[in-house]
Amino acid sequence: MKLLLRLFLIFSFQINAQQFLIKGKVIDKNDNHSISYTNIRVEGTHYGTSSTYEGLFQLRLEKGNYKLIVSNIGYISDTINVKLNSDEFLEIKLQPVPINLSEITVLPGENPALEIIKRVIEEKHKRNEKINTYIFSAYTKGLIKTVRDFSSTGTQVGITVGDSSSDSSKLKITGIIENESRGYFKKPNFYKDEIIARKQSANTPSTINIFTGGRLIQNFYTDDIRFFNRPLVSPIADNAIEYYDYLIEDTLAMDKQNVFKIKFEPLKKTNPGFVGTLYISDKTYNLIKLETGLNDPANPGRIFNKINIIQQFRIFDDIVMPIDYRLSLEGNLMGLYKFGFELNSIFFDYQINNNIDEDFFDRTVIKVKNDADKKDSTYWRNIQTIPNTEEEIAAYKRIDSLEAIEKTFWDNFSFLATAISVNKNFSVYGPLAIYSFNVVEGHTLNFGGNAIQLFDKRLNANLDLSYSFGDKKFKQSFSTNYFLGEYRTTNFSFSAYNKITDLFTESIHYNKLTSTLTSLFGKYDFRNYYYTKGFSFSLGGLVFPILNLGVGFFNRTDNSAINNTDFSFFNRKKAYSINQSIFETKINAITTSFQFDFRKFIEDGYFKRRIDDTNGFITFGGSAIFSNKKILKSNLDFEIYRANINGSFPIVASASSRFSIVVIKSSNAIPFQMLYALPGNIESGSQSFTFRTLRAGEIFGDNVLMLSLENNLNDELFRLLGLSFLIEKQMNLSLHFNAALIETSNKSKNILPLNILSKGICEFKKPFAEIGFGIGQQLFPFKVEFTWKLNYKGKNNFVVGINTPIL
């Protein structure tokens, strides 16, 4: 009997809590065309939604009687009575407001629009003073659009075979993400978003589905507006009147209230900003809707040919809050690759000025709930959503069908790939990685592969195998790491190797392909090599939100390598430089490390990921190596202590600066191959955070103090100087400065290779410094840099180099 009673109570609760779906479409009563972005709210609640571009909407409500208030600018608001005891479809017809509006109040002045905007800004401040906290719910949908379908491995699939009507240049939906989130705010600047549920098309990983209703989506009632990492002045920002030109274009009505329709654009055509329309309510001077886009100077590289933004606002508890956010953009990269993206988010169920404990706002600004990816179809049928269009439903089916097709190795094959995916977890070397060449190994064939995110995204592994025809050696290297903890913040790593490696590899910022090409075509190998074999393991992880600690051990035996080839396609009479010998030894050492990182996190459901703060950030870390003859049976006694400080800070507008400081202090004799070399460059090349006037491996030592400063000024200096030609061409300017003190202790000099001692050791016992600038165009991934030595002049007092990540 008790069991029956319990089952009855459970059944009764489910009946009472059952929700029904209200679907609907809002149309114009006169001509029956759909009305986009109409507000639908439930009277007496903070619950509601807004219609799509096609005028469609849906609401989930429990059984009962409701009044739906439907409103849009230019139409007479309507109240719809709904008796809900089953799913309903409503066709709501709104009557346009008659053209003969009542007289509106226009304040005196040369431009009445400016007076209105001043009042809007005043009301904005009053609004902000009223807000201490708020909580809201959000539903967000993102659409990725490309010409061709893509798979989860990144492979393009192509237009559907047999579809003769398909346009090969037409954008179509090729990826979909949806999520439900809850957002929190507390003065002065505490933010947090929790993703409660998320789903996406089969070709899109859940880890990128972190678009929420909070910090990643703009709110035009704040002054913190950024697009493409550039801060932009909001049209109702405190300094907006000095930045934008305003014009009253029309007067409309909403909810029996007059509405000003005001056009705006930057006063200076070269200033980056918004261009669009504001809808301001008369009497209250609230911003109730914004339709805008970006002008050319705010469009990076002008790759976007369409950028549309729509946001609406409504009063909750006498406070204006955003109720949606719509972003639509389309672009064409250099005329070669068309793409598009849409983001639609609706905000509802506001709770304003409720108590939120400050401890709730930890260092995580976006948190994906543990069960967010486990919500079933029943759950998704019962939450607030933006209705899926027929195109979106078809896209889900098409993408799922494409992902279900088993892909072969050759489906993913590309001659320009360094790695080829076998599936989402395994990849093997691609054509660009199979072959390499250097002066020691000669022609080398490389084989290997990677395994990533196995066992619930916890295990990664890498295997490298190679055979070189110059030194006739077979080499192997294996490494793996396993992540522990709920958010995989602890990492155990292990590696075993018998391989060739670069001398001062940390200081060479160029890839392996670059040195292969400079050798084959220029007979110039800027690297030196040595053989090493051994193993290492380490354990490290997050012990506090701002602190990582690590400990490890390595055993390695290092031996010198010699030139084994003189081959080159060109410059055959030219001789390669002799490969540098090293201090041959066996080293057993314990390693320790720490890092203080004050940046905040995104918890994407699997990992904690640090995010850079646009207001600047700083990290401080260090490491130590202890080699000991007696305890660890190493061939040498020495210690190496190292500290690193890295950070970024804004300068003005979109300009920012990054810096890096390295401090190294050593004791006893350090083997040559473990000395630190100032990061240098190759001829006609340069890389960020390197000394442009120094060559790779040219200056080294065991006691170091180094500063690197990289300033990305974008076009801000050109704007200050009024250089409109450079602004129009979207040219960017950067500045760089490097300085260093570096020397080698006498004990380390005693074990240096003889040829190094015979040439003389170059040290900077007084600060060495260089300074320069670079200029490039936003669209292209390279810039030309010019650098001068400030002292220690001799060779390379002035150098010109191409800085590009391609090298």
From TrEMBL:
**Transmembrane stretches, by residue range?**
none
Q: Which domain of life is it from?
A: Bacteria
Taxonomy of origin reads:
Bacteria, Pseudomonadati, Ignavibacteriota, Ignavibacteria, Ignavibacteriales
Q: Does the keyword Signal apply?
A: yes
Report if keyword Transmembrane helix is assigned.
Answer: no
Per UniProt, the keywords (alphabetical) are: Signal
Name of the protein described by the UniProt record: DUF5686 family protein
Q: Tell me the first and last residues of the signal peptide.
A: 1-17
Which InterPro entries does the protein's record reference? CarboxyPept-like_regulatory (IPR008969), DUF5686 (IPR043741)
